[in-house]
Amino acid sequence: MTDDTEFTQPVYHEEDTNAEYIADKTVAVLGYGSQGHAHAQNLHESGVDVVVGLREGSASRSAAEDDGLRVATPVEAAAEADVVSILVPDTVQPAVYDQIEDELEAGDTLQFAHGFNIHYGQIEPKGGIDVTMVAPKSPGHLVRRNYEAGEGTPGLVAVYQDETGDAKGEALAYASAIGCARAGVIETTFREETETDLFGEQAVLCGGATALVKQGYEVLVDAGYSPEMAYFEVLNELKLIVDLMYEGGLTEMWDSVSDTAEYGGLTQGPVVVDETARENMEEVLEQVQNGEFAQEWITENQANRPKYKQLRAREENHDIEEVGERLRELFAWAEEESEDEEEVAEVSADD
Ligand SMILES: NC(=O)C1=CN([C@@H]2O[C@H](COP(=O)(O)OP(=O)(O)OC[C@H]3O[C@@H](n4cnc5c(N)ncnc54)[C@H](OP(=O)(O)O)[C@@H]3O)[C@@H](O)[C@H]2O)C=CC1
Ligand SMILES: CC[C@](O)(C(C)=O)C(=O)O
Ligand SMILES: [Mg+2]
Ligand SMILES: [Mg+2]
Protein backbone atom coordinates (compact mmCIF):
# COMPACT_ATOMS: atom_id res chain seq x y z
CA MET A 1 0.00 0.00 0.00
CA THR A 2 1.28 3.46 -0.83
CA ASP A 3 2.53 5.36 2.19
CA ASP A 4 -0.57 6.79 3.90
CA THR A 5 1.22 10.04 4.63
CA GLU A 6 1.23 10.86 0.89
CA PHE A 7 -2.54 10.55 0.41
CA THR A 8 -5.62 11.16 2.53
CA GLN A 9 -6.94 7.66 1.75
CA PRO A 10 -5.13 4.32 1.26
CA VAL A 11 -4.09 3.62 -2.34
CA TYR A 12 -3.47 0.01 -3.38
CA HIS A 13 -1.29 -1.33 -6.19
CA GLU A 14 -0.59 -4.77 -7.66
CA GLU A 15 1.74 -5.72 -4.82
CA ASP A 16 -1.08 -5.10 -2.30
CA THR A 17 -3.44 -7.54 -4.00
CA ASN A 18 -3.66 -11.30 -3.70
CA ALA A 19 -5.16 -13.22 -6.63
CA GLU A 20 -5.83 -16.17 -4.31
CA TYR A 21 -8.96 -14.39 -3.08
CA ILE A 22 -10.73 -15.11 -6.39
CA ALA A 23 -8.52 -17.82 -7.87
CA ASP A 24 -10.96 -20.68 -7.19
CA LYS A 25 -14.12 -18.66 -7.53
CA THR A 26 -16.62 -18.09 -10.30
CA VAL A 27 -17.54 -14.51 -11.07
CA ALA A 28 -20.91 -13.74 -12.65
CA VAL A 29 -20.86 -10.50 -14.60
CA LEU A 30 -24.46 -9.40 -15.06
CA GLY A 31 -24.69 -7.20 -18.16
CA TYR A 32 -22.37 -6.88 -21.14
CA GLY A 33 -22.49 -3.16 -21.78
CA SER A 34 -19.85 -0.51 -21.19
CA GLN A 35 -18.48 -1.85 -17.88
CA GLY A 36 -19.73 -5.44 -18.23
CA HIS A 37 -17.84 -6.30 -21.41
CA ALA A 38 -14.63 -4.83 -19.99
CA HIS A 39 -14.83 -6.55 -16.59
CA ALA A 40 -15.84 -9.89 -18.07
CA GLN A 41 -13.07 -10.00 -20.70
CA ASN A 42 -10.37 -8.62 -18.40
CA LEU A 43 -11.27 -11.10 -15.63
CA HIS A 44 -11.33 -13.96 -18.13
CA GLU A 45 -7.93 -13.04 -19.56
CA SER A 46 -6.58 -12.73 -16.01
CA GLY A 47 -7.49 -16.39 -15.50
CA VAL A 48 -10.70 -15.95 -13.50
CA ASP A 49 -13.67 -18.23 -14.22
CA VAL A 50 -16.36 -15.93 -15.63
CA VAL A 51 -19.97 -16.45 -16.58
CA VAL A 52 -21.90 -13.57 -18.16
CA GLY A 53 -25.52 -13.21 -17.03
CA LEU A 54 -27.86 -11.87 -19.71
CA ARG A 55 -31.64 -11.74 -19.99
CA GLU A 56 -33.48 -13.95 -22.47
CA GLY A 57 -33.18 -12.56 -26.02
CA SER A 58 -30.39 -10.20 -24.98
CA ALA A 59 -28.87 -8.16 -27.78
CA SER A 60 -25.48 -8.53 -26.06
CA ARG A 61 -25.45 -12.32 -26.11
CA SER A 62 -23.65 -12.79 -29.44
CA ALA A 63 -21.00 -10.22 -28.52
CA ALA A 64 -20.20 -12.03 -25.27
CA GLU A 65 -20.12 -15.41 -26.99
CA ASP A 66 -17.98 -14.08 -29.84
CA ASP A 67 -15.56 -12.84 -27.18
CA GLY A 68 -15.24 -16.43 -25.99
CA LEU A 69 -17.32 -16.11 -22.82
CA ARG A 70 -19.90 -18.42 -21.32
CA VAL A 71 -23.39 -16.93 -21.17
CA ALA A 72 -26.31 -17.87 -18.92
CA THR A 73 -29.38 -16.07 -17.57
CA PRO A 74 -28.77 -13.72 -14.63
CA VAL A 75 -30.42 -16.23 -12.26
CA GLU A 76 -28.35 -19.17 -13.54
CA ALA A 77 -25.17 -17.12 -13.49
CA ALA A 78 -25.79 -15.92 -9.93
CA ALA A 79 -26.63 -19.45 -8.77
CA GLU A 80 -23.32 -20.72 -10.07
CA ALA A 81 -21.18 -17.80 -8.93
CA ASP A 82 -19.36 -16.89 -5.74
CA VAL A 83 -19.06 -13.24 -6.77
CA VAL A 84 -21.89 -11.47 -8.59
CA SER A 85 -20.86 -8.23 -10.28
CA ILE A 86 -23.98 -6.28 -11.10
CA LEU A 87 -23.18 -4.25 -14.23
CA VAL A 88 -26.58 -3.50 -15.70
CA PRO A 89 -27.81 0.14 -15.68
CA ASP A 90 -28.36 1.61 -12.21
CA THR A 91 -32.09 1.96 -12.83
CA VAL A 92 -32.42 -1.75 -13.67
CA GLN A 93 -30.33 -3.09 -10.79
CA PRO A 94 -33.10 -3.26 -8.13
CA ALA A 95 -35.24 -5.50 -10.35
CA VAL A 96 -32.26 -7.69 -11.28
CA TYR A 97 -31.30 -7.96 -7.59
CA ASP A 98 -34.82 -9.13 -6.76
CA GLN A 99 -34.46 -11.88 -9.38
CA ILE A 100 -31.13 -13.15 -8.09
CA GLU A 101 -31.37 -12.56 -4.34
CA ASP A 102 -32.35 -16.17 -3.57
CA GLU A 103 -29.28 -17.41 -5.46
CA LEU A 104 -26.88 -15.52 -3.19
CA GLU A 105 -25.61 -17.87 -0.54
CA ALA A 106 -23.88 -17.06 2.72
CA GLY A 107 -20.31 -16.04 1.96
CA ASP A 108 -21.05 -14.95 -1.61
CA THR A 109 -20.32 -11.40 -2.75
CA LEU A 110 -22.57 -8.86 -4.41
CA GLN A 111 -20.39 -6.34 -6.18
CA PHE A 112 -21.10 -2.95 -7.71
CA ALA A 113 -19.24 -0.48 -9.94
CA HIS A 114 -21.24 2.46 -8.56
CA GLY A 115 -22.94 2.92 -5.20
CA PHE A 116 -26.24 4.52 -6.28
CA ASN A 117 -28.62 1.72 -5.31
CA ILE A 118 -26.98 0.90 -1.99
CA HIS A 119 -26.48 4.52 -0.97
CA TYR A 120 -30.02 5.61 -1.85
CA GLY A 121 -31.60 2.47 -0.37
CA GLN A 122 -32.93 1.01 -3.63
CA ILE A 123 -31.25 -2.32 -2.90
CA GLU A 124 -31.20 -3.61 0.66
CA PRO A 125 -28.84 -6.56 0.43
CA LYS A 126 -29.62 -9.67 2.43
CA GLY A 127 -27.49 -10.61 5.43
CA GLY A 128 -24.75 -13.23 5.22
CA ILE A 129 -23.19 -11.91 2.01
CA ASP A 130 -20.36 -9.47 1.39
CA VAL A 131 -21.21 -6.29 -0.48
CA THR A 132 -18.36 -4.47 -2.19
CA MET A 133 -17.60 -1.99 -4.92
CA VAL A 134 -14.85 -1.88 -7.52
CA ALA A 135 -15.45 1.28 -9.53
CA PRO A 136 -13.12 2.09 -12.41
CA LYS A 137 -12.85 5.84 -12.79
CA SER A 138 -13.34 5.63 -16.52
CA PRO A 139 -15.79 4.64 -19.24
CA GLY A 140 -15.82 0.87 -19.67
CA HIS A 141 -14.37 0.91 -23.17
CA LEU A 142 -11.19 2.50 -21.85
CA VAL A 143 -11.03 -0.07 -19.02
CA ARG A 144 -10.85 -2.70 -21.74
CA ARG A 145 -8.53 -0.77 -24.04
CA ASN A 146 -6.07 0.02 -21.24
CA TYR A 147 -6.03 -3.60 -20.09
CA GLU A 148 -5.31 -4.81 -23.62
CA ALA A 149 -2.47 -2.30 -23.89
CA GLY A 150 -0.97 -3.66 -20.66
CA GLU A 151 -1.93 -0.47 -18.86
CA GLY A 152 -4.28 0.21 -15.99
CA THR A 153 -7.33 2.30 -15.19
CA PRO A 154 -7.49 4.00 -11.79
CA GLY A 155 -10.31 2.68 -9.65
CA LEU A 156 -12.01 2.84 -6.28
CA VAL A 157 -12.67 0.09 -3.76
CA ALA A 158 -15.27 0.13 -0.99
CA VAL A 159 -16.82 -2.36 1.38
CA TYR A 160 -20.42 -2.00 2.55
CA GLN A 161 -20.93 -5.39 4.19
CA ASP A 162 -18.16 -7.74 5.27
CA GLU A 163 -19.56 -11.03 6.53
CA THR A 164 -16.57 -13.18 5.62
CA GLY A 165 -13.76 -10.88 6.72
CA ASP A 166 -12.34 -11.23 3.19
CA ALA A 167 -14.42 -8.59 1.45
CA LYS A 168 -11.65 -6.07 0.86
CA GLY A 169 -9.06 -8.69 -0.11
CA GLU A 170 -11.45 -10.17 -2.65
CA ALA A 171 -12.42 -6.76 -4.06
CA LEU A 172 -8.75 -5.86 -4.48
CA ALA A 173 -8.10 -9.18 -6.25
CA TYR A 174 -10.98 -8.32 -8.60
CA ALA A 175 -9.58 -4.80 -9.08
CA SER A 176 -6.25 -6.33 -10.01
CA ALA A 177 -7.87 -8.77 -12.46
CA ILE A 178 -9.63 -5.99 -14.37
CA GLY A 179 -6.43 -3.93 -14.51
CA CYS A 180 -7.22 -1.20 -11.98
CA ALA A 181 -4.42 -2.08 -9.54
CA ARG A 182 -1.87 -1.49 -12.32
CA ALA A 183 -2.77 2.19 -12.01
CA GLY A 184 -3.91 2.42 -8.38
CA VAL A 185 -7.04 1.70 -6.36
CA ILE A 186 -8.20 4.27 -3.82
CA GLU A 187 -10.18 3.15 -0.78
CA THR A 188 -13.47 4.97 -0.32
CA THR A 189 -17.04 4.46 0.93
CA PHE A 190 -20.26 3.86 -1.00
CA ARG A 191 -21.43 7.31 0.06
CA GLU A 192 -18.31 9.15 -1.07
CA GLU A 193 -18.11 7.33 -4.40
CA THR A 194 -21.81 7.86 -5.18
CA GLU A 195 -21.96 11.52 -4.31
CA THR A 196 -18.67 12.53 -5.95
CA ASP A 197 -19.37 10.47 -9.07
CA LEU A 198 -22.82 12.01 -9.55
CA PHE A 199 -21.53 15.51 -8.87
CA GLY A 200 -18.59 15.06 -11.23
CA GLU A 201 -20.62 13.75 -14.14
CA GLN A 202 -23.36 16.37 -13.73
CA ALA A 203 -21.43 19.53 -12.94
CA VAL A 204 -18.17 19.07 -14.81
CA LEU A 205 -17.47 15.97 -16.91
CA CYS A 206 -20.67 15.36 -18.85
CA GLY A 207 -23.13 18.14 -17.97
CA GLY A 208 -20.77 21.08 -17.40
CA ALA A 209 -18.47 20.29 -20.32
CA THR A 210 -21.23 19.82 -22.90
CA ALA A 211 -23.04 22.97 -21.73
CA LEU A 212 -19.80 24.96 -22.02
CA VAL A 213 -19.11 23.57 -25.49
CA LYS A 214 -22.64 24.30 -26.76
CA GLN A 215 -22.71 27.83 -25.34
CA GLY A 216 -19.29 28.60 -26.82
CA TYR A 217 -20.33 27.23 -30.22
CA GLU A 218 -23.60 29.18 -30.22
CA VAL A 219 -21.91 32.47 -29.23
CA LEU A 220 -19.46 32.18 -32.13
CA VAL A 221 -22.03 31.09 -34.74
CA ASP A 222 -24.55 33.72 -33.62
CA ALA A 223 -21.82 36.32 -34.03
CA GLY A 224 -21.41 35.28 -37.69
CA TYR A 225 -18.41 32.94 -37.55
CA SER A 226 -18.51 29.70 -39.53
CA PRO A 227 -19.81 26.57 -37.79
CA GLU A 228 -16.64 24.73 -38.81
CA MET A 229 -14.40 27.29 -37.09
CA ALA A 230 -16.65 27.25 -34.05
CA TYR A 231 -16.59 23.44 -33.88
CA PHE A 232 -12.81 23.26 -34.00
CA GLU A 233 -12.33 26.05 -31.52
CA VAL A 234 -14.66 24.83 -28.77
CA LEU A 235 -14.97 21.07 -29.23
CA ASN A 236 -12.17 19.50 -31.25
CA GLU A 237 -9.38 21.36 -29.51
CA LEU A 238 -10.91 20.76 -26.09
CA LYS A 239 -9.66 17.17 -26.21
CA LEU A 240 -6.13 18.33 -26.89
CA ILE A 241 -6.22 20.78 -24.01
CA VAL A 242 -7.74 18.19 -21.64
CA ASP A 243 -5.09 15.67 -22.71
CA LEU A 244 -2.41 18.11 -21.59
CA MET A 245 -4.11 18.61 -18.21
CA TYR A 246 -4.50 14.83 -17.88
CA GLU A 247 -0.84 14.25 -18.59
CA GLY A 248 0.74 17.03 -16.57
CA GLY A 249 -1.89 18.98 -14.69
CA LEU A 250 -2.96 22.58 -15.15
CA THR A 251 0.66 23.76 -15.12
CA GLU A 252 1.70 21.62 -18.08
CA MET A 253 -1.30 22.81 -20.06
CA TRP A 254 -0.56 26.48 -19.31
CA ASP A 255 3.11 25.87 -20.20
CA SER A 256 2.12 24.41 -23.56
CA VAL A 257 -0.29 27.08 -24.78
CA SER A 258 0.85 30.54 -25.82
CA ASP A 259 1.36 33.26 -23.23
CA THR A 260 -1.51 35.09 -24.88
CA ALA A 261 -3.83 32.10 -24.36
CA GLU A 262 -2.57 31.73 -20.83
CA TYR A 263 -3.17 35.36 -19.85
CA GLY A 264 -6.56 35.47 -21.57
CA GLY A 265 -7.57 32.14 -20.09
CA LEU A 266 -6.49 33.03 -16.57
CA THR A 267 -8.32 36.35 -16.63
CA GLN A 268 -11.48 35.39 -18.60
CA GLY A 269 -12.05 31.82 -17.35
CA PRO A 270 -13.35 32.99 -13.98
CA VAL A 271 -15.50 35.61 -15.75
CA VAL A 272 -17.31 32.86 -17.67
CA VAL A 273 -17.41 30.25 -14.91
CA ASP A 274 -18.06 32.79 -12.19
CA GLU A 275 -19.34 32.88 -8.62
CA THR A 276 -22.88 32.15 -9.89
CA ALA A 277 -21.63 28.98 -11.58
CA ARG A 278 -20.04 27.98 -8.27
CA GLU A 279 -23.32 28.57 -6.42
CA ASN A 280 -25.11 26.48 -9.07
CA MET A 281 -22.54 23.73 -8.58
CA GLU A 282 -23.15 23.83 -4.83
CA GLU A 283 -26.85 23.44 -5.49
CA VAL A 284 -26.18 20.44 -7.74
CA LEU A 285 -24.11 18.90 -4.96
CA GLU A 286 -26.82 19.55 -2.39
CA GLN A 287 -29.41 17.77 -4.53
CA VAL A 288 -27.07 14.81 -4.85
CA GLN A 289 -26.41 14.77 -1.10
CA ASN A 290 -30.03 15.12 0.03
CA GLY A 291 -31.26 12.47 -2.43
CA GLU A 292 -33.39 14.89 -4.48
CA PHE A 293 -31.59 14.04 -7.74
CA ALA A 294 -31.81 10.30 -7.02
CA GLN A 295 -35.55 10.54 -6.38
CA GLU A 296 -36.07 12.59 -9.56
CA TRP A 297 -34.18 9.99 -11.64
CA ILE A 298 -36.09 7.09 -10.07
CA THR A 299 -39.43 8.82 -10.74
CA GLU A 300 -38.35 9.70 -14.30
CA ASN A 301 -37.66 6.03 -14.96
CA GLN A 302 -40.96 4.94 -13.46
CA ALA A 303 -42.65 7.27 -15.98
CA ASN A 304 -40.63 5.75 -18.86
CA ARG A 305 -38.15 8.63 -19.11
CA PRO A 306 -40.16 11.43 -20.82
CA LYS A 307 -37.76 14.25 -19.88
CA TYR A 308 -34.68 12.16 -20.62
CA LYS A 309 -35.97 11.32 -24.12
CA GLN A 310 -36.82 14.93 -24.88
CA LEU A 311 -33.45 16.25 -23.70
CA ARG A 312 -31.53 13.54 -25.50
CA ALA A 313 -33.36 14.28 -28.77
CA ARG A 314 -32.61 17.98 -28.41
CA GLU A 315 -28.94 17.19 -27.88
CA GLU A 316 -28.81 14.91 -30.93
CA ASN A 317 -30.40 17.62 -33.08
CA HIS A 318 -28.03 20.40 -32.02
CA ASP A 319 -26.25 21.99 -35.01
CA ILE A 320 -22.86 21.13 -33.58
CA GLU A 321 -23.64 17.43 -34.08
CA GLU A 322 -24.19 17.82 -37.81
CA VAL A 323 -21.07 19.95 -38.27
CA GLY A 324 -19.05 17.54 -36.16
CA GLU A 325 -20.16 14.52 -38.15
CA ARG A 326 -19.07 16.17 -41.40
CA LEU A 327 -15.73 17.29 -40.01
CA ARG A 328 -14.90 14.02 -38.31
CA GLU A 329 -15.57 12.29 -41.61
CA LEU A 330 -12.91 14.53 -43.20
CA PHE A 331 -10.39 13.39 -40.65
CA ALA A 332 -11.33 9.71 -40.68
CA TRP A 333 -8.08 9.08 -42.56
CA ALA A 334 -6.13 10.08 -39.46
CA GLU A 335 -7.79 7.38 -37.39
CA GLU A 336 -7.48 4.77 -40.12
CA GLU A 337 -3.80 5.58 -40.46
CA SER A 338 -3.15 5.22 -36.75
CA GLU A 339 -5.08 1.92 -36.72
CA ASP A 340 -2.92 0.71 -39.63
CA GLU A 341 0.20 1.74 -37.72
CA GLU A 342 -1.02 -0.20 -34.67
CA GLU A 343 -1.63 -3.28 -36.81
CA VAL A 344 1.85 -3.04 -38.33
CA ALA A 345 3.32 -2.71 -34.83
CA GLU A 346 1.36 -5.76 -33.67
CA VAL A 347 2.50 -7.83 -36.64
CA SER A 348 6.14 -6.79 -36.06
CA ALA A 349 5.82 -7.69 -32.38
CA ASP A 350 4.45 -11.13 -33.34
CA ASP A 351 7.38 -11.78 -35.75
N1 LIG B 1 -20.60 3.41 -18.25
C1 LIG B 1 -19.48 3.49 -17.54
O1 LIG B 1 -18.39 3.57 -18.08
C2 LIG B 1 -19.50 3.45 -16.05
C3 LIG B 1 -20.51 2.80 -15.39
N2 LIG B 1 -20.42 2.59 -14.05
C4 LIG B 1 -21.48 1.84 -13.39
O2 LIG B 1 -21.45 0.50 -13.92
C5 LIG B 1 -22.77 -0.04 -13.92
C6 LIG B 1 -23.14 -0.49 -15.33
O3 LIG B 1 -23.23 0.65 -16.13
P1 LIG B 1 -22.99 0.59 -17.72
O4 LIG B 1 -21.85 -0.30 -18.00
O5 LIG B 1 -22.99 2.00 -18.19
O6 LIG B 1 -24.32 -0.16 -18.16
P2 LIG B 1 -24.85 -0.35 -19.67
O7 LIG B 1 -25.99 0.57 -19.91
O8 LIG B 1 -23.75 -0.31 -20.63
O9 LIG B 1 -25.44 -1.85 -19.53
C7 LIG B 1 -25.93 -2.50 -20.62
C8 LIG B 1 -26.09 -3.96 -20.28
O10 LIG B 1 -27.13 -4.10 -19.32
C9 LIG B 1 -28.11 -5.00 -19.84
N3 LIG B 1 -29.46 -4.59 -19.47
C10 LIG B 1 -30.07 -3.42 -19.76
N4 LIG B 1 -31.32 -3.42 -19.31
C11 LIG B 1 -31.53 -4.64 -18.75
C12 LIG B 1 -32.63 -5.25 -18.11
N5 LIG B 1 -33.79 -4.59 -17.96
N6 LIG B 1 -32.47 -6.52 -17.63
C13 LIG B 1 -31.29 -7.17 -17.77
N7 LIG B 1 -30.22 -6.65 -18.38
C14 LIG B 1 -30.34 -5.39 -18.85
C15 LIG B 1 -27.95 -4.91 -21.35
O11 LIG B 1 -28.41 -6.12 -21.89
P3 LIG B 1 -29.17 -6.18 -23.31
O12 LIG B 1 -28.11 -6.32 -24.33
O13 LIG B 1 -29.99 -7.39 -23.14
O14 LIG B 1 -29.96 -4.92 -23.46
C16 LIG B 1 -26.45 -4.76 -21.50
O15 LIG B 1 -25.81 -6.01 -21.47
C17 LIG B 1 -23.66 1.06 -13.36
O16 LIG B 1 -23.76 0.87 -11.98
C18 LIG B 1 -22.87 2.34 -13.66
O17 LIG B 1 -23.18 3.43 -12.81
C19 LIG B 1 -19.33 2.96 -13.31
C20 LIG B 1 -18.29 3.60 -13.91
C21 LIG B 1 -18.35 4.00 -15.31
C1 LIG C 1 -18.41 10.23 -16.10
C2 LIG C 1 -19.56 9.28 -16.22
C3 LIG C 1 -19.46 8.03 -15.37
O1 LIG C 1 -19.52 8.37 -14.01
C4 LIG C 1 -18.14 7.38 -15.65
C5 LIG C 1 -17.80 6.91 -17.01
O2 LIG C 1 -17.31 7.31 -14.77
C6 LIG C 1 -20.65 7.14 -15.72
O3 LIG C 1 -21.54 6.99 -14.86
O4 LIG C 1 -20.71 6.63 -16.85
MG1 LIG D 1 -17.83 7.94 -12.96
MG1 LIG E 1 -21.27 7.67 -12.98
Automatic annotation (TrEMBL):
Pathway: Amino-acid biosynthesis; L-valine biosynthesis; L-valine from pyruvate: step 2/4; Amino-acid biosynthesis; L-isoleucine biosynthesis; L-isoleucine from 2-oxobutanoate: step 2/4. HAMAP family: IlvC (MF_00435). The keyword Aminoacyl-tRNA synthetase does not apply. NADP(+) binds at residues 32-35, 55, 58, 60, 140. The active site is at 114. Binds 2 magnesium ions per subunit. Substrate binds at residue 258. Residues 189-334 form the KARI C-terminal knotted domain. Mg(2+) 2 binds at residues 197, 233, 237. It catalyses: (2R,3R)-2,3-dihydroxy-3-methylpentanoate + NADP(+) = (S)-2-ethyl-2-hydroxy-3-oxobutanoate + NADPH + H(+); (2R)-2,3-dihydroxy-3-methylbutanoate + NADP(+) = (2S)-2-acetolactate + NADPH + H(+); (2R)-2,3-dihydroxy-3-methylbutanoate + NAD(+) = (2S)-2-acetolactate + NADH + H(+). It comes from the Archaea. Its EC number is 1.1.1.86. Belongs to the ketol-acid reductoisomerase family. Mg(2+) 1 binds at residues 197, 201. Residues 9-188 form the KARI N-terminal Rossmann domain. Its cofactor is Mg(2+). One of its GO terms (molecular function) is ketol-acid reductoisomerase activity. Involved in the biosynthesis of branched-chain amino acids (BCAA). Catalyzes an alkyl-migration followed by a ketol-acid reduction of (S)-2-acetolactate (S2AL) to yield (R)-2,3-dihydroxy-isovalerate. In the isomerase reaction, S2AL is rearranged via a Mg-dependent methyl migration to produce 3-hydroxy-3-methyl-2-ketobutyrate (HMKB). In the reductase reaction, this 2-ketoacid undergoes a metal-dependent reduction by NADPH to yield (R)-2,3-dihydroxy-isovalerate. This is Ketol-acid reductoisomerase (NADP(+)). Keywords: Amino-acid biosynthesis, Branched-chain amino acid biosynthesis, Magnesium, Metal-binding, NADP, Oxidoreductase. InterPro entries: 6-PGluconate_DH-like_C_sf, KARI, KARI_C, KARI_N, KARI_prok, NAD(P)-bd_dom_sf. Pfam families: KARI_C, KARI_N. One of its GO terms (biological process) is isoleucine biosynthetic process. PANTHER family: KETOL-ACID REDUCTOISOMERASE, MITOCHONDRIAL (PTHR21371:SF1).
